[in-house]
Every structure is written in C-alpha cells, then in structure tokens.
Amino acid sequence: MQDGPRFRLPEKEGFIEQLSIDCVIFGYRDRSLHVLVPKLNFRGGLSTLPGGFVRQDESIDEAALNILKGRTGIEKIYLEQFQVFGDLERSTGPFMRDIVRENAERHGENAGEVAWLTRRFVSIGYYALVNIAKVVPVKSEIDDSIDWHPLEALPAMVMDHNKIVAEALKALRNDLDRKLIGFNLLPERFTMQELRELYETVYDRAFTRSNFQRRILDLGVLERLEKKFTGAANKAPYLYRFILPDQG
Amino acid sequence: MQDGPRFRLPEKEGFIEQLSIDCVIFGYRDRSLHVLVPKLNFRGGLSTLPGGFVRQDESIDEAALNILKGRTGIEKIYLEQFQVFGDLERSTGPFMRDIVRENAERHGENAGEVAWLTRRFVSIGYYALVNIAKVVPVKSEIDDSIDWHPLEALPAMVMDHNKIVAEALKALRNDLDRKLIGFNLLPERFTMQELRELYETVYDRAFTRSNFQRRILDLGVLERLEKKFTGAANKAPYLYRFILPDQG
DNA sequence: GGTTATTGTATAAAAAAAATACAATAGCCA
DNA sequence: TGGCTATTGTATTTTTTTTATACAATAACC
C-alpha cells in the first residue's frame, strides 16, 4: 500500500459545507488548447480539477479566485461562472472517503474534523482562458504536480470532472466574443493574426482572414497601435489592443 | 406588533446547509408575462420567490422540482438552471433573522434547530415558463397567498429576488428557441399565431407573420396537424404540435 | 356565388456574411 | 536603387440570410 496523503485536509470551520467550486483553466499556446490539471498527492496521484471550498466571509466569485490562486498560483484573471453540478451520485464514490481515511491514519489528531469532506457536494463550475506563456502554474502543497494537458488527451479525472470540462468548453465557445474572454489571454498588444489563430483554436475551425478582420474591427473594441517589427520581407502587421470599457 | 409566522420553519437535518434554490416561474396569458410570487405568512406578508432547500437525498434538479411543487403546487414541468447567486451581502440582512426570532417565540420548542436559517445562503436560480390558464397555483402552509404579478409591476421582494428575476428573464430570452422552453407552455396543439404571440410577448417586440412562420417551420420541430375550427369567416389555421426528440 | 378577413406561401428587396481580388509594403537581393 | 516575394489591409463581388411585400387559398357570411 502506498503512502496516504502528506497534506492536511481542511477542517470545516469557516467553510460552507457540501458546496465546492471547480475551475476549468483553459490554456492556449501554439494554436492548441490545454487544461490545467493538478495531481493530488495521494496514492501516486489522482487527477482533479483545481477546486476547493467557499469560505464564510467571501462571495462565490471571490472564493473561485482564492481557490484558483491557492491551488495553481494563478491570480488576477477573469473567471466566468457557467454551471452548477449537483447530481446525487457525483460525489458519493470512494474518492474522498479513501483520502479522508488515510489522512486520518497519518494525521490522527484532526481525523474527526475532516469527515465533512466525505459528504455529498454540490459544485459550482468556473472557467477561464489564459495564455500558457504568460502564466506559471505553481503546485499547491496538497498536489504532487500540476500540468497542462491537451484538451484532446485529458487524463481520467476524479468524479465528474471530465464532464465539467466538456460543459466548460461549450460555455467558452458560447461566450468568446460576447464576453471578450480573450482579455485574459493575449499579450496587451497583439496582431490580428494572433487573435484569429486563437479563435480558430477555440472553435476548431478556420476563419477567412479578411472577413475575420472586418468582423472583429466592427465590434469596435480594438484600438490600432503602431506597426509591429517582424523582420520579415513583407508588409508589417499592425498591433492592436482591447479598449477597456469605461469605468464610468 | 403583528403576529409572528404561523408556520414551523424546517430543521436542518436532511438539508444541505447554506444552499438554497429559488424558482422564477414566468406565467403567460393574453400576451403578457407574469411572475408567480408567494407572500410569506409573516408580519402581514413578505414577497419572495418560491424557494427552498436541497435535501441530502435528491439532486439539485430534483430539489428544484420538489421545492416548486411544495411551494406552488406546480409539478411535472421543465425547469432550467440559469445562475448561482452567491454574494456575501445577499442574505445577511434582517429578513431571516426576524422570521427565526419570531418563530422561536411562537414555537419555542424548536428554536435552536432553526438557527441554521439565519446563516448566509448561496442560491441556485431556476426558471420555467408556464401557461397561466393551465396551471393552478396552490399556496403552501408557510404562505398567506400566492399570486401572478405582471412582470412590469413586480412587488419589492426580499433579499436579491428582484435581481434574480431580471437575470432569469435574460436567460429565458436567450434560450427560448434553442431549448424549446415553449413545451411547458402551449396547449398540446396550437396555431402558429398562438406561438408567435408568445414570442412577441417574451421578446417584447413584433415579428413579421410570414417570416416568423418560415423560420419556425425551418427549425424542423413542429408537426402539422388538422385544421382548427374557428367559426370565423376566413381561412382556418392549421394546428401544430412539437415533435418530441427521440428518447433513443 | 360574391364578399371579407385571415392564413399559408411565394417573391422581391435589403442586409449580412463569405469568397475573392487587389493594392500596399517590409525586407531581400541583384 | 528598383524589381521580387510574402504577407497585410481593404475593396469588391458573390452568396446566403433576413426582412418586406405580394398574392393565392379558403371558411363563413350574405
């Protein structure tokens, strides 16, 4: 039998019981989408979405940001709430029961205090889209590792986490230009080609270059800046940036 | 000082704590939208959305249906989950505290058992659209009355319930033809004019008759039945019904 | 059987989207 | 320096979709 978890489970004081948050962090680089998946330090590793619990003194949006920061090191990004997962069977499997039992063996003193984790949980899903090159995930003390996995080759995750990712992707595609999710993602100044490649990756289809440019510019949310030096033997592309809406 | 509540508050055993569900039931009749609002039996009446709590042995979708049935008598309809409301301040006002205090004065014996209700709650919003003529709301024992209120003239409700209605309306408009929310609403067999009047009411705008008919028929979800006898001195309209998707 | 109001559908006009064409240009190289 | 090439930005053409308008069908009345 392998080691039990080397981390301490949280005690219930200060948290809302039976309510959790799971974050689907889509990472973009080189025309492909990845999902950030920590591996719990437990029995050689269990893949889970970065999730956690809601403190009594924070809103659910704040909780999502705090959970994300604590579990991945990522902060100051826009997270979008997309769906609640509340089936009965979703969290009644052996997953948390085993963790709690082995945690109790190792850290006997707080055994009774962590039994709350074996109960049924309702989980609120949040997603974000970030630039892999701009973000450095840092594993938390409860995880062994944290890695980007290609969307098409995700590991089997605990409970219904693979389903949560599938629903998050639907929501992302639904929201991409309506909610300007790209804000998190691109460098402050980017070319039209970089933006188009992002769209093509998220929707997994091609967009005609000329029409894409017109459609995006017609949204009226981009400001044209100076030209970008590429060194290539051809016309230099302009840089653009998002015009942030007035804070009125 | 008026009477305290004449009902017994639920004790926490069997429920998920700090998690609630609120239902926005849109009612349609005579080209206008209403919202079903029960009035709590408390201090002469407090308007609230029909809401309640999630039992340990039911999914959140089942909970929404059970809450709706218990609070309004309405059953067997399609409820759509649309958003979670989890701001810190949303449920920290005097609303529940007052109810619990006066409940304790009246029914002293279970006073300690209902303190859970004064805590901060996170609430999952569900909405539905029903035909006022086909549904008979029945007030529950915790309410004094239950009434349809025109969408444009809703009473001030407790906590953030007016905001929840506003968000539900956005979701309804977003989903109406994508999710065929009309299923709950229309009689089994209906005319194209009845369907169009519904759309015009929900979106609060006119649709050109001929174009509406083509657009809806092109969706491929309606089956044409026999003509309807109207008695009017003009061409009789066909009846249509929704083709239910295969249950495979 | 003519009249009237309304329905179902066809056609025309307008708008939007997609495909294509073409001019501008940054650096290379003769 | 001036042609060459690859890529960008935009204009134009083509197609599709949406909207507006026209018109034939018809149920009950007189």
From TrEMBL, chains A, B:
GO MF annotations in UniProt: hydrolase activity
Domain Nudix hydrolase: 18-171
Record keywords, A-Z: Hydrolase
Source species taxonomy: Bacteria, Pseudomonadati, Bacteroidota, Saprospiria, Saprospirales
UniProt cross-references to InterPro entries, sorted A to Z: NUDIX_hydrolase-like_dom_sf, NUDIX_hydrolase_dom, WH-like_DNA-bd_sf, WH_DNA-bd_sf, WHD_NrtR
A Pfam short name: WHD_NrtR
Record's protein name: NUDIX hydrolase
